[in-house]
Every structure is written in C-alpha cells, then in structure tokens.
C-alpha cells in the first residue's frame, strides 16, 4: 500500500499502520497518518460517492497492525462513523479483543488526559482510546 494514496478500506489504513508499528513510529504519528487519514478518506468517499460506498470501506475486518491500541482505534472509528452517519457497523468492530491495552491517550499532553476521559465518544472510550473533542473535527 502506497502511504501517499487514499485509503479505500480500513485494511489499507491497517496495512500502513502495521508498517509504522514495525518501524517503531510514535503512536501520535500513527494516529495522524492512519486514523485521521482514514477519517479524511471516508469523508471524501461519503461526499463524492455516497453512503453505501463510504460504508463499504468498513465491511471487512482489517489485518492486525501489531499494536492493540491502533486496532482498537480503527474499530472505534468505524463504530463512531456508523452511529454518526446512520449505517450498521460491521460485526468485527464488536470484537472484545479490540481494546487498547494499555489505555491509549492519543494526546501526549498529560494535562489533557482528564479532559480526554470526559470528551471521548463512547465508541472510543469503551475501547480504552481517549481523545479530546477536537480530535475528529476536520476542516
């Protein structure tokens, strides 16, 4: 998967994440280059091709990234988008193994961790991935 091309599926994002995990990239970089990029590509697909095409990006379970926190974040994003946009989340996002161990506070700023505990959407919070309210807002 060319890391500069658009993600067509959640597995594309997981493939890039796996390469970054193997290269020992920082988790914040993996978040930005996979989770946030997947959100952007999903939003573009939704806008240009419609809900069915955007939902189809999440149909198949992605490969493991090599880090449970990243895998949990991808599942959380899928569930979050399904709830937000009114489509049925695929069954794989409900796998209890898709939980961040240890918990993942996406921001490295420890002073924002209490805020992230409160502001994280349920789909992230229940998987042990904590983000602030602006983490999923895109321009």
Short characterization:
This protein is mainly α and 139 residues long.
Task: Describe the global form.
Answer: globular
The low-pLDDT segments are: none
* Range of strand content: under 5%
> What does the largest sheet look like?
2 strands, parallel
- SSE string: HHHHEHHE
Distance between the termini: 26 Å
State Rg: 14 Å
| Total count of strands | 2
> Structural class, from secondary structure content?
mainly alpha
Mean pLDDT: 94
Helix content: 40-55%
Read across the widest sheet, the strand sequence of neighbours is 1-2
Number of helices: 6
Structure overview:
- The structure is a single chain.
- By secondary structure, the chain is mostly helical.
- Helices cover 51% and strands 3% of the residues.
- The protein is built from six helices and two strands; from the N terminus they run H-H-H-H-E-H-H-E.
- A two-stranded parallel ribbon has the order 1-2.
- The longest helix has 23 residues, at 27-49.
Can you tag this structure with a few keywords?
single chain, 139 residues, mainly alpha, two-stranded parallel sheet, 6 helices, 2 strands
Task: Please give the structural blueprint.
Elements: H1 10-22, H2 27-49, H3 51-56, H4 68-85, E1 104-105, H5 113-119, H6 122-125, E2 129-130
Parallel strand pairs: 1-2
Helix pairs in contact: 1-2, 2-4
């Amino acid at each position: 998967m060319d890391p500069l091309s658009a993600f067509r599926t959640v597995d594309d994002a997981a493939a890039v994440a796996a390469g970054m995990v193997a290269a020992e990239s920082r988790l914040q970089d993996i978040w930005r280059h996979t989770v946030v990029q997947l959100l952007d590509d999903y939003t573009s697909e939704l806008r240009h091709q419609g809900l069915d095409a955007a939902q189809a990006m999440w149909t198949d379970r992605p490969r493991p990234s090599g880090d449970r926190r990243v895998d949990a974040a991808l599942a959380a994003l899928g569930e979050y988008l399904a709830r937000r946009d009114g489509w049925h989340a695929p069954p794989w996002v409900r796998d209890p193994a898709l939980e961040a161990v240890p918990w993942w506070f996406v921001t490295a700023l420890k002073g924002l961790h209490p805020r992230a505990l409160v502001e994280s959407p349920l789909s992230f919070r229940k998987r042990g991935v904590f983000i602030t309210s602006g983490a999923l807002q895109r321009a």
